[in-house]
Amino acid sequence: MAMKQAATTAIRALSSSLISHSSPLVRQLHASAESKKIVGVFYKANEYAAMNPNFVGCVEGALGIREWLESQGHEYIVTDDKEGLDSELEKHIPDLHVLITTPFHPAYVTAERIKKAKNLQLLLTAGIGSDHVDLNAAAAAGLTVAEVTGSNVVSVAEDELMRILILVRNFLPGYHQVVNGEWNVAGIAHRAYDLEGKTIGTVGAGRIGKLLLQRLKPFNCNLLYHDRLKIDPELEKQIGAQFEEDLDAMLPKCDVLVINTPLTDKTRGLFNKERIAKCKKGVLIVNNARGAIMDTQAVVDACNSGHIGGYSGDVWNPQPAPKDHPWRYMPNQAMTPHISGTTIDAQLRYAAGIKDMLERYFKGEEFPAQNYIVKEGQLAPQYR
Ligand SMILES: NC(=O)c1ccc[n+]([C@@H]2O[C@H](COP(=O)([O-])OP(=O)(O)OC[C@H]3O[C@@H](n4cnc5c(N)ncnc54)[C@H](O)[C@@H]3O)[C@@H](O)[C@H]2O)c1
């Protein structure tokens, strides 16, 4: 409590002393009581909007905070029109104070947009993963970037488990046979396996990676993980997962690889041609982390050659994926649009998290520490 008061006092003191627009710290200052312009960029739900009162993650649902914001005198613009100079988002860039967006339909916040956004103070991600923002440019401009850390960890870990099973059991060809009026057991069975006894490795064992390992434990697999940090020894023992310090040494051991790191300068293109070649022939890959962690063409080539035996995930580069994105047409893929972290349960959690942070922003209070991605010119450790 005392710490929180001290932090609030420090921020207020800063706000009166740092008036110079040349200071990079100016724009990170929390709000005063005046009316703010808040813009939300979400996916549009159209005919699905009215089908569930808890469907708050779309344009129409607007995170369920419109009445609350407007009753306090703030302006709240919500749109899905985010690309290009003629977009609705672009119109509001020069005078918005807060931009809320979501990884499922990301507003790409480039250095150019940050430069134009003279009033911008706060970038909030409704979900987890803020790589749609040029984080270095945001840090240099003194902006605060925050996400609802933990909000959809369960949703993603469950989805990854489903994708692992879909690939290992060769589920999709069977489904397509049924839809197409066919019946060919051999066409599925020649490459369908049990999960038990297989080696599964996660690249990244943060919140989602750890939960996936916990969920996998009852399947009696060999569990490996690579991360910059070791899991707490007690939990590691409980899960029975083995730490692999060297990623390249882990790759040839894995029947299934799951990617669970953020997209950073270090992980962009991490799975290029050379690294994929180090994986076991026929490896199954699940990637719900970010599309750009993979080299797009290297994945296509390896799926074509059979070096990757199956690829599933919900993340693409860019999003929405264009109609001609090659991952739509490669063999043995089980891709979907970006959905794993936007279940109705997840939407309610990240909407509540956004409301909480806005409330704190209006009062000049600190956010929960784990939510900060950029604060006072510094990137959070997982993005460095
Ligand atoms: N598909 C979806 O709907 C969805 C939803 C939520 C999150 N995500 C993605 O999943 C990512 C992970 O989420 P989380 O909640 O587990 O985050 P987290 O911060 O709890 O964990 C990330 C882990 O990655 C590790 N890491 C970072 N860089 C690394 C590197 N270069 N090498 C090895 N390990 C590295 C970190 O040490 C950390 O343990 C998010 O950043 C986001 O991109 C996707």
TrEMBL record:
GO terms classed as biological process: formate catabolic process
Subunit: Homodimer.
Binding annotation for substrate: I128, N152
Site (Important for catalytic activity): residue numbering on this chain: R290, H338
Enzyme class, broadest EC rank: oxidoreductase
CDD domains given in the database record: FDH (cd05302)
Name of the molecule in the record: Formate dehydrogenase, mitochondrial
GO molecular function, one term: formate dehydrogenase (NAD+) activity
Classification via InterPro entries: D-isomer_2_OHA_DH_cat_dom, D-isomer_DH_CS, D-isomer_DH_CS1, D-isomer_DH_NAD-bd, FDH_NAD-dep, NAD(P)-bd_dom_sf
Reactions it catalyzes: formate + NAD(+) = CO2 + NADH
PANTHER family: FORMATE DEHYDROGENASE 1
Limits of the D-isomer specific 2-hydroxyacid dehydrogenase NAD-binding domain: 162-340
Keywords: Mitochondrion, NAD, Oxidoreductase
Protein family: Belongs to the D-isomer specific 2-hydroxyacid dehydrogenase family. FDH subfamily.
Subcellular locations according to the entry: Mitochondrion
Sites where the protein binds NAD(+): R207, I208, D227, P262, L263, T264, D265, K266, N288, D314, H338, I339, S340, G341
